[in-house]
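[Protein data]
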Amino acid sequence: MKINPIEAMILVGGKGTRLKSAVHDRPKPMAEVAGKPFLEWLMLSLYEQGVRKVILCTGYMGEMVESYFGDGEKWNLQVRYSHEPFPLGTGGAIRHALDLVQGDRFLVLNGDSYCRFDIGAMEAKHNSRSALATMWLEKMDNCNRYGSVVLDENGMILSFSEKSSVSGSGLINAGVYLIERRLVETIEKDRMVSLERDIFPNIIGKGLTGVVGEGVFVDIGTPESYTSAEKILATDFTDKNSKG
């Protein structure tokens, strides 16, 4: 397996309010799915693509995350932690953790969703367009719960909404981003900032690109989607391993 020097951040600080009825004693990314914490599946997916350094951006019940993953040696990963002192939003949490990043660009993953993203495809698109940020997108029959995205023929994002009131099929934000450090440096420290609402809309036409996947997408944001995640994840990893 080729080692990819790119670093990854996973956002695991949210309370997961909508999931409380199903998972009430732990942060949402630590919810058990197919015998493992959901976050562990994300770590395994990064390892499979050669990532070896992961920064976990913790918040609510972050000590449970740190206790479970430790330094990451069990998974052959180097794991470090950035604990937000108060809720900072997705952009604020990334800015708070930036000092732990060594490279000029890095991956960001939402800690409550999983998809079969391809780092190589994201890097190729990112480089070809000299992008500030590249989003992994998935096709969805109903975009209502997710960010709705429109691309041009060159993969540049024409419009992006973090949540859409319009139902119907289209492309959704799958919660995986390749981001330039210089973009994150523009975010004010210790302030609540949303990548999806405050940052990405402002760089449309200025370096926001997207790559469309055709694979699995699952999130655990609601009790219903959490219930469906177990079979999807277990099956997806079995399929990948049998092909590999």
Observations:
- The domain at 7-243 is CATH 3.90.550.10 (Spore Coat Polysaccharide Biosynthesis Protein SpsA; Chain A).
- The helical segments are 38-48, 62-69, 89-97, 119-128, 181-184, 195-199, 223-243.
- The first strand starts at residue 7 and ends at 12.
- The chain has seven helices and 13 strands.
